[in-house]
Input
Amino acid sequence: MSASPVTLMVARRVERGRYFDFNHWLNEGRELAADFAGYLGSGVLAPPVDDDEYQIIFRFSSSETLAAWEHSASRYAWLERGAGLYEAPHEHRATGLDTWFQTSVSSIPPRWKQAVAVWLAFFPISLLFQFLFGGVLAEWALVPRVVVSTLMLTPVMVFVFIPLSMRLLAPWLQGKWSPLDMLARWRQTSRS
Output
């Protein structure tokens, strides 16, 4: 078993016409998970416009706390209430930073690409945070200033901007295109 945080990623394809019921059921499950020891958070990535597969992320402090939630009677009852709302789910467990970069069909990209993708997500949000709150926090001592900024930025990064960055940069992370390809495409479109 793992002593480090573990992320369970579940892909669920919604049955046609059941989106409202599915979202209600999904929110119920997230609230249920929050009552369990070791729960660190959860998130939902909605599908693109032309798809119906939701990516649901549950994060727990260890394999043991995740297992306690997964094998609980309340979770089983919740899953039964969701019968008919989605097709058979695909599940994937991951630990550490590789959680954001590995999918069921791809390998983990090199660490330098991971670093670039995280930086591209983190820089603009940090800049915006400093623009909005930097003046207010400037007079605070260093430790409280860093505590407040990291407490505010970490959830936003983990649940919104890092997943967004991974989705937008997926072709580059998996080696399916390079910056030179992008430059060539940009030149083609700018000439048209």
Notes: The two ends are 57 Å apart (CA to CA). The beta strands are 6-13, 39-45, 53-60, 90-95. The mean pLDDT is 81. The CA atoms of residues 170 and 176 lie 8 Å apart.
